[in-house]
From TrEMBL:
One of its GO terms (molecular function) is efflux transmembrane transporter activity. Residues 143-201 form a coiled coil. Keywords: Coiled coil. This is TolC family protein. InterPro entries: MdtP/NodT-like, OMP_efflux. The keyword Cell cycle does not apply. It comes from Sphingomonas zeae. Belongs to the outer membrane factor (OMF) (TC 1.B.17) family. The keyword Coiled coil applies. It comes from the Bacteria.
Length: 419
């Protein structure tokens, strides 16, 4: 019966995988080592979007350097009129060029604002790359933890199978009631179900990792243990929170807001338009040169609303920059404290695991000798499984804390600078 149930569940899992992935795609490739994966992910959609934002800012900065275009005007006067009064004898044709001239340093302010926009896009790109590297590392570690959970579930299935064999032998010898065998069978079915869930979670974790990395096909495994690699690395050096990507981004946004305010202030200065043209008179022997200047009167629009809005934006950016500095300092302290706490938690979890393994070993010896009931063995096995699961949770927490600190330091979890 157990074999048929196991086969049916295996077929169901295979059917699910066949629906999720086309034939052959599931065997596509193994995820490369994390450092290589991070380099390959430069073409991932999220990174491409960050690059596009920088290109957009560069385009706007280039456009900010453009000067106003001149315009050409052609005027005709007195070309239709009363022939008896000789109106057409006074026909005039004027060709004129108008050139707007920016005053008050508008172009320089606009160029400075464009350059500040580029700096913001670049800072946002670095901050986004660091966030992406941290999320990719967590996805890689999650896939590794999913692998370990499968191994843990397989061990528990094997242990439950061994317990069932012992229970059947004791029942056959008349030393246990039939109820104990049923309890052991139920326990085995539960472990088999947990194993299938772990396998499904592994498929999902690998699929998410492939999607983040921009891989068109899902991964089937990992090329390295990123958690073990993290454990082998020495503790990171001092981290300057004032040099974190978030603080630099906030400072760049504050500078951009200041440049935008200058643009609005300079825009209040009216521009002039210089005019130069040639007028042809029908009654004259030659052309006449005409020139002029157009000066707008700032009576109704003095750009006060835009200036006030830019001032408010600058105040907001200054407050955000101050908040970013405080958060970076607090985040660095919290990350270091969390690393120490998760390290202590990991050590405690390993001591608990050692105790649980010994308790399970003794409970099994006692049960097989008929000196302890099955309920004690099952309880010891549950405690052992819980201790193993706590080890995995502690490893993931330690990894997450170190990933956070690496991001604050401007590094990937592999210790490489992210630019």
């Amino acid at each position: 019966m157990n074999g048929s149930i196991r086969r049916s569940r295996t077929l169901a899992l295979a059917g699910t995988l066949a629906v999720l992935y086309p034939a052959g795609a599931i065997w596509a490739r193994t995820a490369p080592p994390f450092a290589q994966l991070l380099r390959e992910a430069r073409e991932a959609p999220r990174i491409t979007a960050l690059d596009a934002d920088v290109d957009q800012a560069l385009g706007k900065a280039e456009q900010a350097r453009a000067r106003p275009n001149p315009s050409i005007n052609l005027y005709g006067e007195n070309f239709v009129g009363d022939l008896r009064r000789n109106a057409r004898d006074q026909q005039q044709t004027t060709l004129q060029i108008d050139q707007p001239i920016e005053l008050g340093g508008k172009r320089a302010a606009r160029i400075a604002a464009g350059d500040a926009g580029v700096a913001v896009a670049q800072a946002r790109g670095i901050e986004g790359r660091l966030a992406f590297a941290a999320e990719l590392a967590r996805a890689y570690a999650a896939a590794e933890i999913a692998d370990r959970r499968i191994a843990l579930a397989e061990d528990e299935v094997q242990e439950a199978t061994d317990v069932l064999k012992v229970a059947r032998a004791l029942v056959a010898a008349g030393k246990e009631a039939r109820l104990r065998q049923v309890q052991a069978e139920a326990e085995l079915h539960t472990m088999e179900s947990d194993l299938e869930v772990a396998r499904a979670q592994r498929v999902g974790a690998l699929a998410r990792l492939a999607a983040m990395a921009g891989s068109p096909t899902p991964y089937t495994g990992l090329a390295e243990s990123l958690i073990d690699r993290m454990n082998a690395r020495p503790a990171s050096g001092p981290v300057d929170p004032m040099q974190s990507a978030a603080v630099r981004l906030a400072q760049a946004e504050r500078e951009a807001a200041a440049r935008a305010l200058t643009v609005q202030q300079r825009s209040a200065t009216p521009d002039i338009t210089a005019q130069l043209g040639v007028r042809q008179l029908r009654v004259a022997n030659g052309p006449a040169v005409v020139a002029g200047v157009t000066v707008p009167l700032p009576v109704f629009d003095r750009n006060r609303g835009n200036i006030a809005a830019a001032q408010a934006e600058l105040q907001g950016m200054e407050a955000r920059a101050a908040a970013a500095r405080l958060e970076a300092e607090a985040g660095t302290r919290a990350a270091r404290a969390l690393i120490a706490a998760t390290d202590a938690r990991g050590e405690a979890a390993r001591r608990t695991l050692s105790t649980a393994e010994e308790a399970y070993r003794l409970a099994r010896i006692a049960y097989e000798a008929g000196k302890a009931p099955l309920i004690e063995l099952l309880s010891a096995r549950h405690n052992l499984g819980a201790a193993r699961s706590v080890i995995l949770d502690a490893d993931m927490a330690r990894f997450d804390a170190r990933t956070t600190l690496a991001r604050l330091a401007g590094l990937s979890i592999a210790g490489e600078p992210v630019q």
